[in-house]
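Protein entry
_____________
===
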Amino acid sequence: MRLDKLLTVTATATRSEAARAVRTGTVLVNGRAVKSASVQVDPERDAVVYCGTKVEYRAHHYLILNKPEGYVSATEDGREKTVLELLPQKYTTLGLFPCGRLDKSTVGLMLLTDDGELAHRLLSPRRHVTKRYLFRVKFPLNEGECAQFREGLVLEDGYETKPAGIELFSDMKSGIITLVEGKYHQIKRMMQALHNQITHLERISFGPLTLPEDLPRGAWRELTGEEEQSLLDAAKTV
């Protein structure tokens, strides 16, 4: 693998940044400064240091994003801002994509990855990966409506949803919803079936991942080693 490609696929630097660092002698391969960013390296065996930091090669990348309102869950869109626009340039060339979708007006936890196999397993309807949402509705809910929600509802197009969890807070207009499927605008359509309307929706968990309290809206970070392993384990078992 070319050195500059290694630096880009590890989100260490862009190709132009890699070329500049090589010119200044701050990229080392096995302890020696390289003279060209096109030199071939073995990411599994060679020790690469970029500007004093060891480069860790990864086959795949996993980022957690606190999605803000107004962004669409897509890699590109001719009219709307996409969630990938929230990332710095060195990440936009990695082939990352949203694992699952959140509506433009829905906020909260989103997983971005380039691991297609893991995404397929987590999103497969047969695997029932749980997703939890904080919600608020326009009109108070009663226990009878919550019971209908828990049993599954028939939507306007005739689709019958799987049973969903709902925990109602004391104001009777907000709470936590748990889904095991992810149909288009599902929670909004389920509330419409109860003649109600969602006014706020925030995903707070996806499988084993929980939205970090210290991650501001619009911010992102790579998964910790523990989070990444829990996600990989979940993909194996679900």
In short: The chain has three domains: 3-54, 62-125+218-237, 131-206. The radius of gyration is 22 Å. The first helix runs from residue 3 to 9. The chain has a mean pLDDT of 93.
